[in-house]
């Protein structure tokens, strides 16, 4: 399935942990989100088996259980290597779907991808995941006959190449759109991070036309019992909204959420999302501060590793600070403050609004901008210019003094240069503000 979507049906859950009994609550919820009915589960506490993840005997017992229950799939709570995938495929009844945690999550992402960029990225990530596993289970003789009869492996490789080409076109189009918006006086700000970190709640807190109240009862940030399905589907929506930050016009984009512990090459598949963050004037890397310190730091390391040469400041936003005491919050600040390319660390509660004004101030400080002190004749032409200035930047200290109008204008550097040219053409005077 090129789309990466899962088929649904009945499933047997398999889980292993080295040092503790497996907790299957989350993997069951993920299976439910992918429309699988879990009809049985088998768990094991032991060191990882190189051949199957679980022990060989446990794997055989699971295969027998699948046959007895006539299950459609095995859902494995963890990552299966291509070799393990091939071993399972030989063991399971023909036609049984084998989904490890990453393949299951990517299937849910495929169902929830709302726009073309998200769809392309999810499909690319899914095919990158499938390719080494297809190679593992494909007979070498088929590869030798590929030039005559075709090969599923070569088909997937060709599809991956086409997806790269289409994604580059999407990324180029989006980059041109961002540049056009900059010329119009808008400042792109991207909100990035992992699923369930509170990105959409932060968007609602910052945007001009949204509010946290719009989220309603049952949203993940407002109700801890919200279904995993809701959290995953909501975070796949790539949404852009206008916001006003101390007079500056900002376009906030809530990007597709990353997934915990995805391999590097799969994370890299989400290039359009990463490009949007890297090309933003300010990137907000949102993490759930209530997660353990090590997880907070690791998720930020993964996010930062994929962002090459970001245009603007990267601000770490420790969300859900209301769930932590001062000591715990300080520990998380210390764990991320020294990460490369982090320009600042701020703690907020998107739900309660704590720290939001400080975040707004920091975003404003990070926006590229210049300012002018302007003096123009008091005329209709000046009023027209003021209307333009209000639409493209921030007008402050406006005074009418007889035949003249004075004010300060702040905006993006390119917009300020356009304003300077208009003022001088109108016979006004202008000087750079301190």
Short description:
With 434 residues, the protein is α/β, with parallel strands linked by helices. Helix content is 45%, strand content 22%.
Helix content: 40-55%
Write the CATH homologous superfamily of the largest domain. P-loop containing nucleotide triphosphate hydrolases
Number of strands: 14
Strand order of the largest sheet: 6-7-5-8-9-10
| Rg (C-alpha, Å) | 26 Å
Structural class: alpha/beta
Tally of contiguous helical segments = 17
Name of the CATH class of the largest domain: Alpha Beta
What is the residue-averaged pLDDT?
Answer: 84
Q: What's the number of structural domains?
A: 3
The shape is elongated
- Classify the fold: give the CATH topology of the largest domain: Rossmann fold
| Gap from first CA to last CA | 60 Å
Low-confidence stretches: 140-144, 217-235
